[in-house]
Design brief:
This protein is mainly α and 101 residues long. The protein has four helices and no strands.
């Protein structure tokens, strides 16, 4: 995988985490929207990681979703910089799981 793609993927994950802070935070306030405001970033990540469709599975999606749900445990910052370490962890976990399949 191209090194530039790695940074781009981590950036996308970070932005999705930031979005999840908002959506899940609103849900905690009783404002539902997580189903209608899902960005489908994981599909873009699959493309950037060149994942063939036969390697896509529910476990990858569930792992990604688990990382997204952790976003609310991090400080909310204007650029989402507090989420960078979590985004990197998510990327490396996905990469590891894909190499296992």
């Amino acid at each position: 995988m191209h090194q530039n793609n790695e940074q781009l993927i981590i950036d996308l994950i970070q932005q999705d985490l930031k979005h999840c802070q908002l959506v899940y935070g609103l849900a905690q306030l009783g404002l539902e929207g997580s189903n209608t405001h899902h960005l489908e970033i994981l599909e873009i990540i699959y493309q950037l990681m060149h994942i063939p469709s036969e390697k896509k599975n529910d476990y990858l999606a569930e792992t990604y979703a688990a990382f997204m749900s952790m976003a609310t445990d991090y400080d909310i910052t204007p650029l989402g910089e507090s989420l960078r370490p979590l985004a990197k962890q998510c990327y490396h976990r996905l990469k590891y799981l894909i190499e296992l399949v």
